[in-house]
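Recap quiz, item 2
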Amino acid sequence: MPLHLRSSPSLKSTFLNILRQNLGFGSRSHVTRHIRQNLPHDPPLRGSQNPIRGFCNTMAEPETLSSFGQHEDASNHQVMDFPGGKVAFTPEIRFISESDKQRVPCYRVLDDNGQLITNSQFVQVSEEVAVKIYSDMVTLQIMDNIFYEAQRQGRLSFYATAIGEEAINIASAAALTPQDVIFPQYREPGVLLWRGFTLQEFANQCFGNKSDYGKGRQMPVHYGSNKLNYFTVSATIATQLPNAVGAAYSLKMDRKDACAVTYFGDGGTSEGDFHAALNFAAVMEAPVIFICRNNGWAISTPTSDQFRSDGVVVKGRAYGIRSIRVDGNDALAMYSAVHTAREMAIREQRPILIEALTYRVGHHSTSDDSTRYRSADEIEWWNKARNPLSRFRTWIESNGWWSDEAESDLRSRIKKEMLEALRVAEKTEKPNLKNMFSDVYDVPPSNLMEQELLVRQTVNSHPQDYPSDVPL
Amino acid sequence: MAALLGRSCRKLSFPSLTHGARRVSTETGKPLNLYSAINQALHIALDTDPRSYVFGEDVGFGGVFRCTTGLAERFGKNRVFNTPLCEQGIVGFGIGLAAMGNRAIVEIQFADYIYPAFDQIVNEAAKFRYRSGNQFNCGGLTIRAPYGAVGHGGHYHSQSPEAFFCHVPGIKVVIPRSPREAKGLLLSCIRDPNPVVFFEPKWLYRQAVEEVPEHDYMIPLSEAEVIREGNDITLVGWGAQLTVMEQACLDAEKEGISCELIDLKTLLPWDKETVEASVKKTGRLLISHEAPVTGGFGAEISATILERCFLKLEAPVSRVCGLDTPFPLVFEPFYMPTKNKILDAIKSTVNY
């Protein structure tokens, strides 16, 4: 069990237990022999030459603390009480390796063909929930494709798809309750979809019409719904992470049976707000789940240009946060991981970090052509061979919960609904001009009331300069 | 130099209101300095709303300026707590807390360190309500930070960054001039349903002593106050600078110049009407602030008043402000908009 480095009454006893466990290793000299025997013959993982390799223990084990020469020598005081807790001394000049020899394994339950892996641990889902997960994944896929095409046709100004990440979107949402508050990045509309946001509501926001809850103020895909506890998307990267921690703290103080959940990409983990948020979450003991969609790309920047750690999961430990790496394209594993994380987060009042490995099949957005920086073959491979929908479909079909007929029925129904939603949203008028000036503050201050008057005067004088579909 | 010595050696008494001045309230109270008045406001805020929180670096033991004394002991460590040393985290966390309907009263240790939180303030807090179509808001957020010259603060303990924030639609910016004002304004900020940045003139934390009513009271935001009436020239300022300007007004009076002095209090949204009415009466405007003159908030006031009062102006709008340098240490007395700089500007404006 990992040693939690918090000051607590049990720290001393935990520490002494570890010492007792290691007493078998006895003296300093034995530890030295232990290290020398285990010097690696292979080069360190990252390929860089380490001139003082002799001092570098690249065989750091997960439960590393027990090999840090923690042993009591009665004649030398081997522990010292620095602020922050006791630490043992070591006369060895030994650096913690920059990486473990092996990468953190990835939790998955369904293999690439959608077969349940024997002896896998997972949280059972009912037929109803499984079918809804699958159906919503299909719906998300169809919605994305139709919106994307609409943008290419010039009907929408902009769109960003979540193609390839349907399992992360839907399965994570399925494992939460409606009271859990969501702080999304912008590639998680599936969470809203799961909770009941309709295709029409999505379309209204994308067209910025008068039925858009955002009142036409933001670009497409910047959804938000207070009814569904989904905080409005903002395009700034990772800013939602510390917000989620504050919200989690509120839930903690109000003793709610709920947690905050926040999503972000691999790129987002380089932002300062990521580090700020994880640190705060750990210190405040906030019930927040950090879900990283590591899809390999931040626009054109691959993860090798983003960080040099073993992905995102290892960063959790740096902040004292329990973490797990999951196959993001395995809906059952995602569901199980988030379900378990949620229970831990609320029961133990602690943050959890989930790194969901996946692939961004779509372009970053309609403003991007990703074939300029990656091969079409790579994209195609992930779209076909690693498709999250087909894997999960195999599994639900193997349970007798799905069929070809159900599939084609669903697809044709959703497609029709989607096209209708588009049609209606497109012809719905835009919000009234007064919505430009409201909600900047709770009540418009005098300068805004003045400016609205001036704008209206200008519109009167030069109507041709202004879009005719915005009612005045 | 005399002004600097005066600032560091003399305890100033408030109210230094002379004849003709208007008071917001005539109630008396106990003499308190600025940090004690702020402390009282925080005690009242936490007492009257069980879902309010105070947090920031070192607030637990009372804070580096003693503003949060006694809060943790009285309200508990769940509501009054230290945060890690990370302004972007402090404000980001505060936004999330406020978004859930709580009052998050955040302390940034010095205004000089507020910049890491600038993204959260501008891109998140200020736009939270608007971008969501009023489905969400973080109106319960109040950010407090000590600002301004202290006599020996140098680059990083003396800054006046208010102008950066006045350019951000969606937040409010408030700066009190005295202990009594600070308590009432801070309570208004905390209870205002919009995110507010509240800059406290650190030089006044101990130096200013004033009678402060002990009860719960609020001073309205976006209402400027004429704290000294006059006919020849309007002076506009905020925070600690008003003391200096007041001294200049007294000296000017001895030379037969009648000065009207206005405390803006709220810089965003600011009370143009009060300033406009005053300048239409006096025909002259002088603005003074510690922040560097270029791009300072004085420029906004000047431009607006020019638009509204052009034909009534007898002279150009004068700005007596800090210089366009990083806030210097040894050269602070040269940098500061001192009483005599203001007095000279009053005279040249009047004699234009």
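Chain B touches chain A through 48 residues (CB under 8 Å).
The mean pLDDT of chain B is 94.
End of item.
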